[in-house]
Specification:
The protein is α/β, with parallel strands linked by helices. The chain is built from 11 helices and 8 strands. The structure holds NADP nicotinamide-adenine-dinucleotide phosphate. Belongs to the aldo/keto reductase family.
Length: 270
C-alpha cells in the first residue's frame, strides 16, 4: 500500500468532492474514508471525475459497529462499494473492535476470496484484541489503523504488529493539532534545521518508522506540503528527540473506556 495517503474524516459531505479532487490533483493516490464519515458518495464522484486509472488508486473504507455481523457486513460492503462507484476495494477495515466483528471478519475473508476486497484489516485494535482475532481466524489483518503521533507513539504496539505481519497505519498524525503540536519547540527546531514545517517533520518521522500515514487537510497548499516529505531524512538524534515527546496516552479517548464503548456502540450512521 502507499506509504502516504489522504484522509477525509470530518470533511463535510458537500465539501468532500472538491477536497478529494484537489488531493488527487496534488498527487495523492490513496484515499481513506469510512461509512461513518458520511462522504463515500462524494469521494466516489471525485474519483470518477478524475479519470485516473483505477489500478493507480488505493481506496480504503471502513465498516461501522452498527453493521457488524456476517450478513450485515456483506450488505454494508456492497453499499460502500456502490456509494464509491467502484467494483473492488483495495482495503476494507473493521472500524472499531466492537460489536460482532468476528462474524464480520468471516464475511470479509470471503470478500478477499472473491477479489472484491484486495486486502482486509482493522482499526483501533489494541494488541490483545488483534492477537485474539488473528489466533481464531485464517487471514491475518493486513493493516491496523490506530491513533499514532508524537504524543502517542505506539512503539510497543508496532513491534507486536510487526511480529504478526500487520502494517501499522497512523490516524491523527498531527493529533488533530492538540497539545499545541504545530508549535511544539522540539518539532519546530527540527523543522527549522531542514527548512521543513512541523507537519512535514511529523510525517517524515512516522514514515521513517515504517508507519503508513493518511493526513487530512482541506487546503491545497497543505495537501502539497504534506506530500513533500521524502526529500530529507531525520537523524538518529532527531528521532530520539521526538521519541521523548511520547506520553503513552491517547489525545482523544480510550477505546477501552466502558462509557466510550457504550457511546460508540449506540452511534447510528444511517
Ligand atoms: N480509524 C479511525 O478511527 C480514525 C479516526 C480519526 C481519523 N482517521 C483517519 O485519519 C485521517 C487523519 O486524521 P485526522 O484527520 O483526524 O487528523 P490529522 O491529520 O492529525 O489532523 C488534521 C488537522 O491538521 C490540519 N493540518 C493538516 N495539514 C496541516 C499542515 N501541513 N499544517 C498545519 N495544519 C495542518 C488540518 O486542518 P485543515 O484541514 O484546515 O488544513 C486538520 O485540522 C482522517 O482523515 C481519517 O481518514 C481514522
Amino acid at each position: 500500500m502507499p506509504t502516504l495517503g489522504f484522509g477525509v474524516f470530518q470533511v463535510a459531505d458537500e465539501q468532500t468532492e472538491q477536497v478529494v479532487t484537489d488531493a488527487l490533483a496534488a498527487g495523492y493516490r490513496a484515499i481513506d474514508t469510512a461509512a461513518s464519515y458520511g462522504n463515500e458518495e462524494a469521494v466516489g464522484r471525485a474519483i470518477a471525475a478524475s479519470g485516473i486509472p483505477r489500478q493507480e488508486l488505493f481506496i480504503t473504507t471502513k465498516m461501522w459497529i452498527q453493521h457488524t455481523g456476517e450478513d450485515t457486513a456483506r450488505r454494508e460492503f456492497d453499499k460502500s462499494l456502490k456509494k464509491l462507484g467502484l467494483d473492488y476495494l483495495d482495503l476494507y477495515l473493521i472500524h472499531q473492535p466492537m460489536g460482532d466483528y468476528y462474524s464480520s471478519w468471516h464475511a470479509m475473508q470471503k470478500l478477499t476470496g472473491e477479489g472484491l476486497a484486495k486486502a482486509i484489516g482493522v482499526s483501533n485494535f489494541y494488541p490483545d484484541r488483534l492477537v485474539d482475532l488473528i489466533t481464531h481466524n485464517d487471514i491475518v489483518p493486513a493493516v491496523n489503523q490506530i491513533e499514532t503521533h508524537p504524543f502517542f507513539q505506539r512503539h510497543a504496539d508496532q513491534e507486536i504488529m510487526r511480529g504478526y505481519g500487520v502494517q501499522i497505519e497512523s490516524w491523527g498524525p498531527f493529533a488533530g493539532g492538540k497539545n499545541d503540536l504545530f508549535t511544539n519547540p522540539t518539532l519546530t527546531e527540527i523543522g527549522d534545521a531542514h527548512g521543513k514545517s512541523v507537519a512535514q517533520v511529523v510525517l517524515r518521522w512516522l514514515t521513517q518508522r515504517d508507519v503508513v500515514v493518511i493526513p487530512k487537510s482541506v487546503r491545497p497548499d497543505r495537501m502539497s506540503q504534506n506530500l513533500a516529505i521524502f526529500d530529507f531524512d531525520l537523524s538518529d538524534d532527531e528521532m530520539a528527540g521526538i521519541a521523548a515527546l511520547d506520553t503513552g496516552k491517547s489525545m482523544f479517548f480510550d477505546h477501552r473506556d466502558p462509557e466510550m464503548v457504550k457511546w460508540l456502540g449506540g452511534r447510528r450512521v444511517d
